[in-house]
Fold each of these.
Amino acid sequence: MSIDRFPVGLELDVSYPNFQVSLTLLSATQLRFEIKEGPFARTETVDIQVVPLGNSIFAVSWQEENGSTVTNVQDYDRGLIHSFATLPGGQFLRMMGTIAVSRPADRTFDDRPGRNKALVLEAMTSLFQRHDASAVERLYAPDYVQHNPSIPQGRDALQALVADLSQDVYYEPGLIVAEGDLVAIHGPIRGWADAPQVVVDVFRIEDGKLAEHWDVLQNEVPVAAALRGISMFDAEEGAPRARPGTA
């Protein structure tokens, strides 16, 4: 993880148990904080040192004009800040606050959507192309929640289902989109039902595992040439598209 991924420009409100603070990440070397109410109320711009700890996790430390020293572990994956502060009188504070973003960063800093898309793609191809039931335990959360009422609840039930799948079952991934902890993937599946179907699967990811699932299935309808119809699935639909005016 590089310091280049520090979310410069980000403005956020942090809610601690006893007060709130607004942070503005001015650069990789400065931030501004504002505490509007309470005994710590003030606004100050401080010099910071940033140490990347992992994807979207940074240790940020500074010293304030009154001598207070602060270290924040800013975890943007989980929306939390763990703060450790020593006040001028020697009092030591440990606090955890939740993050609410009021202005996004100047550039993308979170590779979580990309990681989540890769996880979903691996799961769908492992289970419904290679029929690898052992992948369920590796990729799915122990308390996995299934919103398809025709499939039994839980990870163990999913593993048993995959182990019993007909070799005719085959899934082809297409368009895949992700935001935050959610991923949606679109593609056809054959052998699951009497007729080929096109499905949109939506997953929620938690701690690097597939934790929850929704789906919508529709029988695949052939293209009507007389209507100049477009197929329900295009094998190239997930490929990058050229921008208008480019070769």
Note: The helical segments are 112-128, 135-139, 155-163.
Amino acid sequence: MKPILKIVDTQQHEAFQIMKVEESFFFPSWHFHPEFEIMYVEQGTGIRFVGDSMERFQPGDVVLFGSHIPHLYRSDSEYYQKDSDLRSKALVVYFKEDFLGDSFYKLPHISPLSRLMSLSRRGILFKGPQREKLIEQLKQLDQATDGLSKIIDLLSILKTMADAKEYDVLSSRVFTRYSNQEECERINRVYQFIIDNYADNPTLEQVSTVACMSLTAFCRYFKSHTNKTYTQFLNEIKIGNACKMLIDRKMNISQICFETGFNNFTHFNSQFKRITGITPKQYQHARL
């Protein structure tokens, strides 16, 4: 999985670009781009990484990504199996911040939109009634047939986002962006290794070897780039996968504890509550 500066290739004569995704799994690479991005997940599940945040994604999620914020949608493991008939679907809109001209944000009464653009550089997940409204507006944008209607529809979407009261800002204020390709490649290798091997409890020594760093240097590096210790990050990966298993209801909670690499049920419960705010049983019942 190679991190890249994704080239969106927005045409010079177009204000923005709409892309419909329907693949076995979402773009599986840690990437970033100068364009702003709206992503509406129509179908598919997995773990979403945005800056230094990590949480599960599901159908109905609408996220606004600002310019150059690294992100990754890692589909669940069953989506990568050769015989899988699962599909991942999304509606994605790319646009440049100045798609209406350099002076647009200097106009009176545009400050709410300017604040939205600034906040989006940490990634914004929309919730509540505004999310449902945004989904309908995005579908309308996709169906629009002329350029002016599309621009009006996009502005309406951005206004709904700017007016939204229920949302989560995903990445922290202190997230460190990757200054060069080598740094991005290193953290990408580390993420991939942990995701693929989390249930085996990979040691710090193993992961630092993947990063081609000494143990001490890796601990400093990982904390500075994720704002978490390695153990915290590993436990969050485990709990994210435990959440999926709880929703699937194919195993009982004790089985899920050991399947995700926890060797102690008490520790599993405490970590689950620390990360999600509720117990595994409460999480499962909330999704009945």
Note: DSSP finds ten helices and eleven strands in the chain.
Amino acid sequence: MVASDLGRAGRISTLLSRSRYEVIPLEGIEAQVLEHVPRDVTVTVTASPTRGLEPTLALTGSLARQGYSVVPHLSARLVADATEAAEIVERLRQDGVRDVFVVAGDAEEPRGSFHGAIDLLGALDELGRPFPEVGITGYPESHPFIDDETTVAAMAEKALHATYIVSQVCFDPSITARWIGDVWGRGIRLPIYVGVPGVVSRTKLLRVSSRIGIGDSLRFLRKNGSFASRFLRGGFSPDPLLDGLGPVLDGNEVAGFHVFTFNDVEDTERWRRARLHRPVSAVSGSTTAS
């Protein structure tokens, strides 16, 4: 293994120590987090277009009171107006929340006056920017519902109100790396948390991937023989996505990994610990998906 590979393996370990675990506020997930996720791992909590923000806020508050750094996903289309936004802010601040992830959300119709993430970001600004950290979404591939030109313009606008970006899952790490370079090349110098799936079953990952609009990546999996054959045999491992990011990890653009656990937190944390404690020289045997 050459020196650059050794350094990159160490860099991946550093970034893994800054991982964020995304969980869905469903029955049983709080117990799973408490049992398997250490307190130094930030937990982010998704929002459901059908169940509203209450499950997100409730789980956020409960985990925060038990010592976790928790980041609620605030879906703009689920917030009725500026008054409700202020109430949510106050509730989260009482729970000690210092970081929020603002998204438009998947609700077909907004509850009120907020139609997109920029509307809620503006409301937070009017409330005095109450959270030190504010995240927004980035799309290495095309957004399933919005054209690329619009997403680029929207990111530039949202970035004025944010402190970091979380990328959507992409199964081709070369696309993700190129996108990160493009984002910073456009002058949007926000740190990026690279979105990767955790250790999940093939069936679940394929089902969720199709729903959230990363079909180009699925086509990549089918065309990339060695990587796809391992993927299609059983459960998914994030290792090829991490290793395949290459030189982009050498700079300051990547702040860490945002791990989509799909609530399989036990297997994901077992993988993360094994990767953190793997001798750096052992990474030379990793296969990248590039």
Note: Residues 210-229, 284-290 have pLDDT under 50 and may be disordered.
Amino acid sequence: MSNTIYIGYDFKVSPLQPGTEILIAELGYAGFESFVETEEGVSAYIQKEEWNDAILEDIQILGSTEFQINYSFSEIEQVNWNQEWEKNFNPIIVEGECSVRAPFHEKPDTKYDIIIKPKMSFGTGHHETTHMMIHHILKNDFEGKSVLDMGCGTGVLAILAEMKGAKPIDAIDYDNWCFINSLENVERNNCKHITVLEGDASILGDRKYDVIIANINRNILLNDLKTYITCLNTHGDVFLSGFYKDDIPAIEEECNKYHLKLVDTIEKNQWVALKFIN
């Protein structure tokens, strides 16, 4: 049991989406490290030593007239994150081929079996965007291809890419919690060709990839897409998710600037995952 003291916020958000998604992204930049989506919004947690009474001043969505957000907060002692996610984390199977499970779950009869301990990082496979990106990876050829997994979360997509024969693979996340968790999960799945890096698009430099995977929110994608594309090899594939069906025109317009063509769309509960080629 951890002795770390946390400040826990309970946010009630209306409309729920995309309000909750935007709020989580902004809170992450402010230093909040763990999130649990609820029926009414999200619970967010930050270590007390990282907290101050002005922590929400730069959270722009709280001042938006498009959303109604109410919140309360309190001090929480001894948060056991493993216990929290174990209570609700059930194994998933995508297309009958890929399972995503915890170490304590029974091994299913699937071709690709991914074992993770997410520690509240994004990317258990349960969220629609991760589920759809797994679907994309399953139905595309990754053998011998170099891959970038941008915003890797738990590292689940990078792990599946290696299982499908990709190498080398860079898995990158700006969040230290996700960086550490991806390192753990890469080791847990005995991956040999994944390098986990902490940072954002600015660390890409002159790296080159055959495939780019980015499951990040809409605003970051639109801002950083140009940087990603400079790293894409000729005849490369780009898989994008983390946004809604209504966002497709904006995403496609930005991709078209860099001569990317939309060739495949997967939709689930208004969320989408797109495949582009150059």
Note: Residues 16-30 form the longest helix (15 residues).
